[in-house]
């Protein structure tokens, strides 16, 4: 199934720039830290087989000397299978005719929440455009709504009736993956053996 995220008019839209802070946002994407700033919120957002978001009046937190006053249009086109695997996907955020933020889909994570909104997280890499310097190398688009246990299935609400929820676009970073404790101990033991061998030869 091909899910296309296209621009639609949103009757009610709140745009928020998060105040820079040290706390990271929760994410189910392995090895990814979602930053609280810069952040763009669209609330509510009309999500369906043709998803749509429009963001108006955004002023970029790190580039306030060139504020966006004409509104942003967010497009995502991705070929996503029922199991959440994908063959391709692209992000395109435009400020009028100018490219504001573009990227390529790299990972997808889905979290079902029986006590509240489910979340779909789309990780985009190789960012470019006017806001790429602010967002850095990675961006995460988070969709929040009632998607059901298999959100990308042909019978799921996204592909049938649509879902009315919220969206959030954030900068992200890739967390360093630490060496396992066993590998650290092994490296230490090898170093000790090398030192002992040098002492014997001396």
Structure notes:
Residues 1-26 form the signal peptide. This protein has 202 residues and is mainly β. It has one domain (2-201). It is built from two helices and ten strands; from the N terminus they run ββββββββαββα. It has helices spanning 132-135, 181-201, and strands at 2-5, 32-47, 50-51, 53-55, 72-80, 86-95, 98-111, 118-128, 138-145, 163-174. Strands 1, 2, 3, 4, 5, 6, 7, 8, 9 and 10 form a ten-stranded mixed sheet that branches. The longest helix has 21 residues, at 181-201. The radius of gyration is 21 Å and the shape is globular. The termini are far apart. Mean pLDDT is 74; it is low at 5-21 and 62-66.
What's the quick description here?
Keywords: Membrane, Signal, Transmembrane, Transmembrane helix. Residues 1-26 form the signal peptide. The protein is mainly beta.
Task: List its salient traits.
202 residues; mainly beta; 10-stranded mixed beta sheet; VPLPA-CTERM; VPLPA-CTERM sorting domain-containing protein; transmembrane
Q: How are the secondary structure elements laid out?
A:
Elements: E1 2-5, E2 32-47, E3 50-51, E4 53-55, E5 72-80, E6 86-95, E7 98-111, E8 118-128, H1 132-135, E9 138-145, E10 163-174, H2 181-201
* Ends distance: 69 Å
Number of domains: 1
Q: Average pLDDT, to the nearest integer?
A: 74
Radius of gyration: 21 Å
Strand content: 35-45%
Instruction: Report the order of strands and helices.
Output: EEEEEEEEHEEH
- Taking pLDDT < 50 over at least 5 consecutive residues as the criterion, the unreliable ranges are 5-21, 62-66
Compute the number of helices. Answer: 2
Q: Which secondary-structure class do the elements indicate? A: mainly beta
Global morphology: globular
What composes the largest sheet? Answer: 10 strands, mixed
Report helical residue fraction: 10-25%
How many strand segments?
Answer: 10
Signal peptide: 1-26
Transmembrane segments: 177-197
Protein name: VPLPA-CTERM sorting domain-containing protein
Keywords: Membrane, Signal, Transmembrane, Transmembrane helix
């Amino acid at each position: 199934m091909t899910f296309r995220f296209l621009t639609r008019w949103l009757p009610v839209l709140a745009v928020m720039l998060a105040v820079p802070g040290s706390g990271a946002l929760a994410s189910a994407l392995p090895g990814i830290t979602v930053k609280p700033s810069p952040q763009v919120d669209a609330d509510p957002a009309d999500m369906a087989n043709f998803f749509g978001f429009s963001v108006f009046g955004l002023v970029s937190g790190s580039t306030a000397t060139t504020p966006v006053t004409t509104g942003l249009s967010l497009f995502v086109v991705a070929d996503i299978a029922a199991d959440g695997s994908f063959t391709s996907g692209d992000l395109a955020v435009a400020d009028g005719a100018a490219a504001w933020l573009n990227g390529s889909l790299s990972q997808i994570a889905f979290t079902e929440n029986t006590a509240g909104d489910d979340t779909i997280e789309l990780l985009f890499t190789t960012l470019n455009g006017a806001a790429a310097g602010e967002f850095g190398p990675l961006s995460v688009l988070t969709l929040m709504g009632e998607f059901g246990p298999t959100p990308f299935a042909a019978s799921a609400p996204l592909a049938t009736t649509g879902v009315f929820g919220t969206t959030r676009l954030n900068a992200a970073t890739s967390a360093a993956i630490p060496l396992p404790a066993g590998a650290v101990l092994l490296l230490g033991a090898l170093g000790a053996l090398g030192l002992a061998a040098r002492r014997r030869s001396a």
